[in-house]
Write a structure and sequence with these properties.
Elements (H helix, E strand, L loop, with lengths): L11 E12 L2 E12 L14 H9 L6 E5 L19 H5 L7 H13 L33
Antiparallel strand pairs: 1-2, 1-3
């Protein structure tokens, strides 16, 4: 088991092999093999309890695997999963936040929304709220539920 080591292949930002992280009898990750190339953007999608947050914590160095190999750059940045949408911007503008302004950027943002079934919200104003499930997409709901 290795953590926070230099990657073997310089084109890779992340390389996991047979990664296992278990909590009691529950395996959050069970033999995960994952390669992410430098410059790639990756979205982790899955139901609650499928290991998304566990993987992110391992990649960030906030947790250690039970077994397997985890190779990541020594220097990395962590962004936490709390909602950080800008209410005054449209949904597609929040998706494109930080990218160069162009018609191609707008088209890419709308394309990303289409990929996850949220294209109908692209011109809506973003609504931010705290939700019991931090991986949900209800932060774009026109009438948010404020919960803690």
């Amino acid at each position: 088991m290795s953590a926070a080591l230099e990657t073997r292949d310089e084109s890779l930002a992340v390389d996991t092999r047979q990664l296992v992280r278990q909590f009691g009898e529950h395996p959050a990750l069970n033999g995960l093999d994952l390669k992410i190339r430098r410059g790639e953007f990756v979205a982790l999608l899955g139901k609650s309890g499928s290991g998304k947050t566990t993987l992110l914590r391992l990649l960030a160095g906030l947790d250690t695997p039970d077994s397997g190999e985890l190779l990541v750059p020594r220097s990395r940045t962590v962004v936490f999963q709390e909602p950080r949408l800008i209410n005054s911007k449209r949904v597609w503008q929040n998706v494109a936040l930080g990218l160069e302004r162009s018609s191609a950027t707008r088209a890419a943002a709308i394309g990303a929304l289409e990929e996850v079934g949220l294209e109908r919200h692209n011109e809506s104003r973003s609504r931010v709220h705290w939700c019991a499930n931090p991986s949900c997409c209800c932060s774009m709901s026109p009438s948010p539920r404020w919960t803690r």
